[in-house]
Automatic annotation (TrEMBL):
Its cofactor is adenosylcob(III)alamin. PROSITE patterns: B12_BINDING. It comes from Silvanigrella aquatica. InterPro entries: Acid_CoA_mut_C, Cobalamin-bd, Cobalamin-bd_sf. Residues 6-133 form the B12-binding domain. This is Methylmalonyl-CoA mutase.
């Protein structure tokens, strides 16, 4: 997959969720697809993630959640990005997120939600589509 510029992706883990195997797997897959990936590590606040996104001048932020706090943390992250001047940075998410909650998250402006079973190829394809606008 080729890009006109190398996309910078921030993969984040917020809240008390310490399970990061999936986030690391996606980070490696995106890197292997030609993207530059920054991984925050676990237990970050939404404020920290937003500030890192701005400082690192990323093109997109991915939030991995397995804790069940998605309906709280996605809105907080989007608000934090807006408060720090990064309201134009698209956000996507992945993890254990019930299908019934996905419409709400999309209505907030989350660009895509990837649930268990989504192929890496589909994640890469969708991120590329989001970045191309």
């Amino acid at each position: 997959m080729s890009f006109s510029k190398i996309p910078r992706v921030l993969i984040a883990k917020c809240g008390l969720d310490g399970h990061d195997r999936g986030a690391k797997y996606i980070a490696k897959a995106l890197r292997d697809a030609g993207m530059e990936v920054i991984y925050t590590g676990v237990r970050q606040s939404t404020e920290d993630v937003a500030q890192t996104a701005i400082q690192e001048d990323v093109d997109i932020v991915g939030l991995s959640l397995l804790s069940g706090a998605h309906n709280t943390l996605f809105p907080k992250l989007i608000e934090s990005l807006k408060n720090h001047g990064g309201g134009d940075i698209p956000v996507f998410g992945g993890g254990v997120i019930p299908d019934s909650d996905i419409p709400y998250l999309l209505s907030l402006g989350v660009k895509a939600i990837f649930t268990p079973g989504t192929t890496v190829q589909d994640v890469i394809k969708e991120i590329k589509k989001i970045l191309e606008g």
